[in-house]
Design brief:
The chain is of the alpha/beta class. The protein has one domain: Rossmann fold, CATH 3.40.50.150. Helix content is about 25%, strand content about 30%. The protein is built from seven helices and eleven strands. It has helices spanning about 35-40, 60-70, 80-95, 140-145, 155-165, 180-190, 245-250; strands at about 10-15, 20-25, 50-55, 75-80, 100-105, 120-125, 165-175, 195-210, 215-220, 230, 235. Strands 3, 4, 5, 6, 7, 8, 9, 10 and 11 form a nine-stranded mixed beta sheet that branches. A two-stranded antiparallel ribbon has the order 1-2. Strand 3 (about 50-55), helix 2 (about 60-70) and strand 4 form a beta-alpha-beta unit. The radius of gyration is 17 Å and the shape is globular. It starts with 10 loop residues before the first strand and ends in an 8-residue tail after the last helix.
């Protein structure tokens, strides 16, 4: 006998880009946070660009990018059915059905609508936690979003390489203490033609100026050999709890330059 379908999670209504985007997300478990906006702001898409959000959750990054760049075409893939369903609802409620789509599936074996080499940009907020370290969070939904499963960090980056166009850009946000894993994985990436990845750009994200970075945004390109660039980091907060001018601009729909 099949297991009965899970009841829809209790949700809250929340906002991004200072109210330009309204979305629903589970009241408990993994919650869309500032990382989502930072990631979307770091994708240098233009009208007509094709973007894939790997592990899109409830669609926060897709919605932020779609609201910022008119005419961008964004697909999302999400392995958790309940989150994929919420993402579709959120897209509809923000009237972005013409440019945003969500598919339920696994990045390691994506549905046929997600075509290898079909995207100008890939963006992803992969699970932060190595399953062998730390204490996994309670709740299946949050655990799936935060802890690596069958697809580890290297597998996420390899999936991005295979799905992006040649010379296209993959952008991820990740914990700063995993930068070594990220760079080692990028060095080992190879596409079906044996080409690797290069032009890696690293942007450290600091809670406040003078404090160690706790996040990094890393981008790389398929089929290029340009060396690594380490950018000057950016701070999220002022000395108090307020946001820096740069972050206020990002939260209002501005972009982050990875140059």
């Amino acid at each position: 006998m099949k297991n009965p379908p899970k009841a829809p999670p209790e949700t809250t209504e929340d906002h991004l880009l200072k109210g330009r985007v309204t979305f629903h997300q589970p009241a408990t478990g993994y919650r869309t946070a500032i990382d989502t906006v930072l990631l979307a702001a770091s994708v240098n898409a233009k009208p007509g660009s094709r973007v894939l959000d790997m592990g899109c959750g409830v669609g926060g990054a897709m919605l932020a990018l779609g609201a910022r760049v008119d005419g961008v075409l964004v697909d999302g893939i999400e392995i958790q059915p309940q989150l994929a369903s919420l993402a579709k609802t959120n897209i509809s409620e923000n009237k972005l059905e013409a440019s945003l789509r969500v598919f339920e599936g696994d990045i390691s074996n994506p549905p046929k609508d997600i075509v290898a080499g079909g995207y100008d940009f890939i963006m992803a907020n992969p699970p932060f936690m190595d399953p062998g370290r730390g204490n996994p969070p309670p709740g299946e939904m949050k655990r799936t979003a935060n802890v690596e499963g069958a697809a580890d960090l290297a597998a996420w980056l390899q999936a991005g390489l295979m799905l992006v166009k040649r010379k296209g850009v993959v952008v991820i946000i990740q914990r700063a203490d995993r930068l070594g894993h990220i760079m080692a994985a990028i060095d080992g990436l190879r596409d079906a033609n044996g080409e690797g990845a290069g032009d890696a750009i690293i942007l450290p994200i600091h809670p406040r100026a003078g404090e160690p970075a706790n996040r990094v945004i890393v981008s790389f390109r398929r089929g290029v050999k340009t060396p690594v660039t380490l950018l000057e980091g950016i701070a999220v907060h002022t000395e108090g709890e307020g946001y820096t001018d740069l972050l206020e601009n990002v939260l209002d729909g501005g972009a982050i330059s990875l140059k």
